[in-house]
Amino acid sequence: MAQVHNWQLGREMNYPYTAAFPERQFAFVFNTNRCIACQSCTMACKSTWTFSKGQEHMWWANVETKPYGGYPMFWDMKILELLERANPEGQRWSGKPSSDPQAPYGRFEGRTIFEAERMLTPDSARILGYLPTDEEWNSPNIYEDNPVGERGKPFQWHKAGVELPEHKTWFFYLARICNHCTYPACLAACPRKAIYKRPEDGIVLIDQRECRGYRKCVEACPYKKSMYRGNTRISEKCVACYPRIEGKDPESGGRPWQTRCMAACIGQIRLQGLVKVNPDGTWAEDRQHPLYYLVHVAKVALPLYPQLGTVPNGYYIPPRWVPRPYLRQMFGPGVDQALERYEKPDRELTAVLQLFNRAREIVYRYGIVEGPKVYEGTLRGRRVTLYNDTVIAYGKDGEELFRTSVEEPVYVRPAKHANSI
User: Fold this and answer.
1) Which residues 6+ apart lie within 8 Å of 399 measured at CB?
2) CA 401, 293, 391, 366 torsion-angle sign
3) pTM score over 0.85
4) CA 251 vs CA 102, 177, 257, 282, 397: distances in Å
5) Does residue 275 sit in the same domain as residue 201?
6) What is the pLDDT of residues 377-390, one digit of tens each?
7) How confident is the model at residue 122 (pLDDT cuts 50, 70, 90)?
8) How many domains, the chain?
9) How far apart are CA 2 and CA 13, in angstroms?
10) Are 120 and 128 in contact (CB under 8 A)?
């Protein structure tokens, strides 16, 4: 195994191949505080990519209800249990979140799925993983809207479950697509070398001509976003709608567009883009890029299960009402800092949050025009000042895509067409 630098873990780690990085990396941020599980993203992807025979079980984009839901069933519980067995001393982090780009969340002291070879079954290759059964692919919406109640009292809500910052009765929605990881487990596990990362944007694809359907990618991917198609006997996965990313959608006019799942999101939870990458795999400083700002400056967006070691390029703003130990297990040690910043946003963060899903085009840069103060008061014991700033989004070639204000304008329709009932 080669030694590669994993900046999310703050250390070097084992990986089957030497490190190689794209010019830009496809990445995204999901704000879980806004998701309403309408499944618009799910159906947009299904109607575009996985509507054919043999793809009935394929949901490249899905929304799960945590803590009980998952597709395939309990995917994260199973991989975390395997990782726990591989780390009898615990999945420990040392240090603290900092401004160091080489170790922004501290240092993970445990073994990743690439460093747990001794836990593998005899017929597995290189990666700690498991192969879901056919039954586990049956229920994409299992335990939807099922909340956690008081311990030891099943089927009952906690009587004091409505107090922030953490609810005693809680659930939240976790929207997921392929993370197009920097160190993909699917790629590492494929004996045919049929999986590759595109050098121009880091999107992970399966070469359909080379794949022979061994399902090693399905077994190895900890997020279970590589799926086997029985009638063709090859595996398929999310392709990040790469024709849209390339600006080849017939309606895009050559502009890079967000993926179908992103553009269909009515809750405005999603922001997607292409970030510059340094030679060592860390993100190059790009202060006015909205994704760079959210991940490395404001630090409100965190990777999903960073301890797995894949360096996922999907980031999440954690839900505010969920118990912190659960969130730390899911998003790492940066949770407390992220939620503190999100609950008390400064002027710039408030403006950048308005960029989510305001256009189909991919945003490469933003600017802010300061506006008047529109509110000042006390909220939950703290002083709040709100400014109606305008945030401007710019495209690939520096052209202005759109501008929007912190306060949405109010339009009053004339009453002449009002329903008389």
Assistant:
1) none
2) negative
3) yes
4) 40, 24, 10, 34, 18
5) yes
6) 988 778 889 999 99
7) low
8) 2
9) 8
10) yes
